[in-house]
Amino acid sequence: MTTTLQDCRALDARDPLRPLRDLFTLPEGVIYLDGNSLGPLPRAAPERVAKAVREEWGQGLIRSWNTAGWYELPRRLGDRIGALVGAGAGETVATDSTSINLFKVLSAALSITAADAPSRRVIVSERSNFPTDLYIAEGLCRERGLELRLVDAEELPAAVDERTAVLMLTHVNYRTGAMHDMAAVTRAAHAAGALVVWDLAHSAGAVEVDLRGADADFAIGCGYKYLNGGPGAPAFAWVHPRHADRFWQPLSGWWSHAAPFAFTHDYQPAAGIARYLCGTQPILSMTALECGLDTLHAADRFGGMQALRRKSLALTDLFIALVEERCAGHGLGLATPREHARRGSQVCLTRDTGAYAIVQALIARGVIGDFRAGRPDILRFGFTPLYVGFEDTWHAVEHLRQVLAEEEWQRPEFNQQHAVT
Amino acid sequence: MTTTLQDCRALDARDPLRPLRDLFTLPEGVIYLDGNSLGPLPRAAPERVAKAVREEWGQGLIRSWNTAGWYELPRRLGDRIGALVGAGAGETVATDSTSINLFKVLSAALSITAADAPSRRVIVSERSNFPTDLYIAEGLCRERGLELRLVDAEELPAAVDERTAVLMLTHVNYRTGAMHDMAAVTRAAHAAGALVVWDLAHSAGAVEVDLRGADADFAIGCGYKYLNGGPGAPAFAWVHPRHADRFWQPLSGWWSHAAPFAFTHDYQPAAGIARYLCGTQPILSMTALECGLDTLHAADRFGGMQALRRKSLALTDLFIALVEERCAGHGLGLATPREHARRGSQVCLTRDTGAYAIVQALIARGVIGDFRAGRPDILRFGFTPLYVGFEDTWHAVEHLRQVLAEEEWQRPEFNQQHAVT
């Protein structure tokens, strides 16, 4: 039985999360399936950021470090993120960029292994991990004379052995949307004696994550994707309490000092997660991040991440079904796992040719997804249950059908590649 | 001959830079002498940041990486900063925090020395350097098995010898306002075979700096002090072109890759200064930074940094003279050099007791400076010629006189220390 537009409207009508859509300002005529790259604008953000600019900065000036709570922001927002990913209170900080936080936690993990098991000198990761994660790992390996071993997902966990210091994985793959079983992978890595660092860039706010339940060691993630924190919003870092006090990371700036206002010239790391802070944080961007976190916590009274996850799977199921029903014969493949337990909150389609142009033609029609080059090329569509509806999903597929059926994507204007897509 | 309030008003009346004050929104009744800690709000910033929030983020969404020029911001703003500190085009990036940028350039400098002169295994710095700089240096020394040697200013440059890899100095001392002769110190360090890293946190936008003229090797600095970029604004990094392509730094994130959108899994650093970028930057805070840079470049048509420096010295001369004329007998000392060539854009007073409470009493009166604990304790007053006038300076000293003469600072409410001041 095929799904109709009416069916989709009925699904929206009985969706308990539907009111959350009003928490966002979305451009007229846009179906936004790129919240996995940059979350949209929370409706509350313009006023809140304006207040930070005019009142906190403009009127409070330097006094706002105390009076507006700037100093507490990294830990306060960290806790609000932690609550979305199964962290305990006081275990997470919002700060710096994802890449820099990965450097910190990977440094800390390697220091632990260097002390406890110095013969373990390999970082294992997935060949298709997000490139910047691999660059950071490559950099640390170069600094410390270690080896970075890249394998395919199916070679895990066998690749984790007595030489492995750290297994570093992204929970949900950025290209395919495939999701690891965090608890099972962590358990296997621990059994092999390795520590595990998880990148939650495509998980936090998108799927249920239980860092403490999975007994993970370290995690980092992104503030501007599913957390809706605004362009380049500060990222986050989490460390299991069993490691937090034990080791040091080399980005040892003033904000991680045990007594940051004593201005002593020797470094004494703060207790716990605060030692993963470094320099002064961008307060205006941090303020916008809080508005993004508000949108996620607004779902708490509707069932929180569990309810968001349920709707996300319904949306991605629907998208896959509609593409297969309505776009058959146009050479599209599915890169994303069908199995719920292995799927993140995105659907990635493949096509031998034209993937870039098809994405451009869709964007011109107001359906914003993105393109990721590779073998194969990927058409990537992120589904954020906070604001994407079932009717949106119908229309997105209908636009895709028309772009393909009418060969609209062959037009020259859709085939000029820009620097950034 | 003593200076009168009328004299100060006359100085303001004939100050060619006076109109620049209107570029800022300052709170009613405040004399702001803390722009060396956090610059005030540029009048253009609320609207510009609101546009970035509502239009670039809200309407442009992910497309704004191209259409709003987000991707170019670190290099574009870097060039605008570079023009204020004697850098050539394409040599500076605005990115990350001061501490993190110091880590990058110090790493690069140490890598150069490790290759060229491996027996040089000491970083030399000043004991009274800004603590976070020392923490970062301490961290890198620990990572690489090097030694951090701290000396007093008068022991320089004799402390730089055949064991020195890098001399790391802050150009203007945060506690005293004392300024190094950048060209002379750099020349002496080079003669001894060492590289020089300059922290311009209290120099950029405050005093004339000529990085190329001084033949410096590396520099970093702050976006939120004299550059008026807003709370926690991104910092900057500069590298002399002779080093930029040569070496690598370990914070090797996607934005420093030679082909950041090719998503290759091996790291190839970009040519030049771009390799000092790392992860995604906080765009809203970066947007505010540009408004801050606009205020400095607005001085270009009045003589630029040279004219700002001239007024800054006139203001600090006046402040010192007025304090000595009008606050004599109250136990104040002067920590800042009288000699123009050795003075930054701040005046630091000392007092054996009560410095904290005096600063609090002044703040309660609307004269915002800050307190820095130490031996001796410091009352610190920053003078930013863009918005501070001669009459302001008069009134600031008059408030100080009253606070001292009436022992107002002894009130209990001025003697309760907060976490952040």
Summarize it.
Two copies of one chain form a homodimer. Chain A is globular and about 70 Å long.
What is the distance, rounded to the nearest whole angstrom, between the alpha carbons of the first and last residues of chain A? Answer: 37 Å
Give the SSE order of chain A as H and E letters: HEEEHHHEHEHEEHEEEHHHEEHEEEH
Tell me about the largest β-sheet of chain A: 7 strands, mixed
Overall geometry of chain A? globular
Radius of gyration of chain A: 22 Å
User: What is the oligomer described by this structure?
Assistant: homodimer
Description:
2 copies of one chain form a homodimer. Chain A has 421 residues and is of the alpha/beta class. In chain A, 36% of the residues lie in helices and 14% in strands. The first copy, chain A, is built from 12 helices and 15 strands. In chain A, helix 1 runs antiparallel to helix 12, helix 2 packs antiparallel against helix 9 and helix 5 crosses helix 6. The longest helix of chain A has 23 residues. The first copy, chain A, is globular and about 70 Å long. The two termini of chain A are 37 Å apart. The mean pLDDT of chain A is 95.
